[in-house]
Design goal:
The protein has eleven helices and five strands. By secondary structure, the chain is α/β, with parallel strands linked by helices. It folds into two domains: 166 residues, P-loop containing nucleotide triphosphate hydrolases (Rossmann fold, 3-Layer(aba) Sandwich), CATH 3.40.50.300; 65 residues, Helicase, Ruva Protein, domain 3, CATH 1.10.8.60.
Length: 240
């Protein structure tokens, strides 16, 4: 696969429609990160580089995809998943696959941990960073560790990754998960009573992707049966 084919694939991936800024749940602890991403997407940020870090399931990918979607209304704003990209890149050739990305108005690089410690990738990112800065573009990155605590192989890249604004996304609590479920249920035209949401959280996997799949299943069942979401109905659909 050529770089251009992979590059276009990265831009054309079909993400769930809910991965937009208006669909991001934000507690008071998320407010600073949400505002920073929104400003970057709108082109009004004071700092042109932003690094989000936090555990899996804290909303990093949601914010990066949403920022790319929002910014694409005014500039070229590619989103790249470095885990997927690095897995399909020939050894020693990341610079070829990153060529041309300095033309982006906003470049979103997700799952930075996938290339941490890989000197070839870090060198390619270092040079891309410098080219992007010269072109006046912005960079939004996300990883599981803070850039200053990551085991980079190239100190020069480590210092670049740590420039700009660095913000942690907090881990979700059950109250957050319940609020996310209720918000996404409303987006589907469903009402999820608190007691039903708590019932689900006690019995379902607690990661957001699993909860979303469960909500999709309930949505289809409720529509087919013309039923509200009640504990007995949920029991019958999910076979608890």
């Amino acid at each position: 696969m050529t770089f251009q084919a992979c590059h276009q694939l990265a831009l054309d991936l079909a993400f769930p429609d809910e991965l937009r800024l208006e669909g991001f749940y934000r507690s008071p602890q998320h407010a600073e990160a949400f505002a920073a991403v929104s400003n970057l997407a709108a082109g009004t940020a004071a700092a042109q580089n932003l690094y989000l870090w936090g555990a899996a399931g804290t909303g990093k990918t949601h914010l990066l995809v949403a920022a790319a979607r929002q910014a694409s209304e005014r500039v070229w704003a590619p989103y790249l998943d470095l885990l997927e990209l690095s897995a399909s890149t020939p050894a020693g050739a990341p610079d070829q696959w990153l060529a041309g990305l300095e033309r982006a108005g906003l470049l979103c690089l997700d799952r930075m941990e996938a290339v941490t410690g890989d000197r070839a990738w870090e060198e390619a990112l270092f040079h891309l960073y410098n080219r992007l800065q010269l072109q006046g573009g912005s960079l939004l990155m996300a990883g599981r560790q803070a850039p200053g605590a990551s085991a980079w192989a190239l100190p020069d890249w480590g210092s670049r990754a740590n420039w700009g604004l660095v913000l942690q996304l907090p881990s979700l609590q059950d109250a957050d998960r319940l609020a996310i479920l209720q918000m996404r249920a409303r987006a589907r035209g469903l009402e999820l009573p608190r007691e039903v949401g708590e019932f689900l959280l006690q019995r379902c996997p607690r990661d957001i992707q699993s909860l979303n799949r469960m909500l999709d299943q309930l949505d289809r069942a409720a529509l087919a049966a013309s039923r509200r979401l009640t504990i007995p109905f949920v029991r019958s659909v999910l076979r608890f």
